[in-house]
Description:
By secondary structure, the protein is mainly alpha-helical. It has one domain. The chain contains 9 helices and 2 strands. A two-stranded antiparallel ribbon has the order 1-2. Helix 1 packs parallel to helix 8, helix 3 runs antiparallel to helix 4 (about 60-75) and helix 6 crosses helix 7 (about 120-125).
Amino acid sequence: MVPELLIAALICGWALKGRYQRLLDAKINYVWMIFIPLGLMVATRVLNYTHVIPFSSPFHGIIRVIELLVICVFAGANIRIPGAKLLLVGLIANTIVVAANGGAMPVSYDCILAAWGKRQVAEYMAMYPFVKQMLIHPGTRLVWLCDIISVRRPFVLFPGVYSVGDLISSLGGMIAIISLMRTPLPSERKTALEEQ
């Protein structure tokens, strides 16, 4: 997800007289499901950094696909929320490319250089050597769905490289946030009726 679009959604929702409290109180199905991919992500990172299971192991790829599938199921369970369909389409696109490439989202080396600069990229790769295994190469499948869209300052707060799926799902998330902020809760509707 693109953080700037989510921040923009919160600002737009507020500007359109939405309320942040509605996001917390909104009826969202299976909220607990979002903790599954978070837990799996933390567990796999710990196993990788402690060298219990190397990043090149198929285990990491399988877990990554499972993480994305759970998020897809969560988005599908909340399809009634405006923007959820776009969110789901973006997530499915990312899941397909990750599954096609052994559980990793391939990234363009030229794009990460454009986003962060040569020095920072060299330092990052020295610290996290497994990133080299994620670079796009001649055998990469579905390159057009990989992380090939570079964004950098001053256009964004957080430089990054995104996929088409990231942009689509971020747009869907933006619509969902604005919609939830602007939709009165049942308790608010009841209070409004009582005041009439």
